[in-house]
Design a protein that fits this description.
There is one protein chain. This protein is mainly α. Helices cover 96% and strands 0% of the residues. It contains one helix and no strands. The chain has one helix at residues 2-95. The protein starts with a helix and ends with a helix.
Length: 98
Amino acid sequence: MLLVFLLACAIAGLAFLGFLAFQFRTRAAHLDAELAAQQARYDKEIKQWNDFSVTVKARHQGLVNKYKENARKWNEYSSALKAENQRLSKWKASRMPR
């Protein structure tokens, strides 16, 4: 009788361990699927941020180039005005009565 009871307990224990193993396997599969989904979302977000970064860098570079071009034009214009002022001041100085 004791052996039958021990055999029944062993079978019940094995059944319980099998049930736990099944639950752990199901939970692990669920966690693997959740992890894969999170990695896909993370990869998508990283790609979006990288694309945004490239766009912002291109805009920044465009603004820098525009600023440099405008600065070069204004420097040329300023140099031309200075040269014209110097030329006119020499002409004015030679025309003034003494």
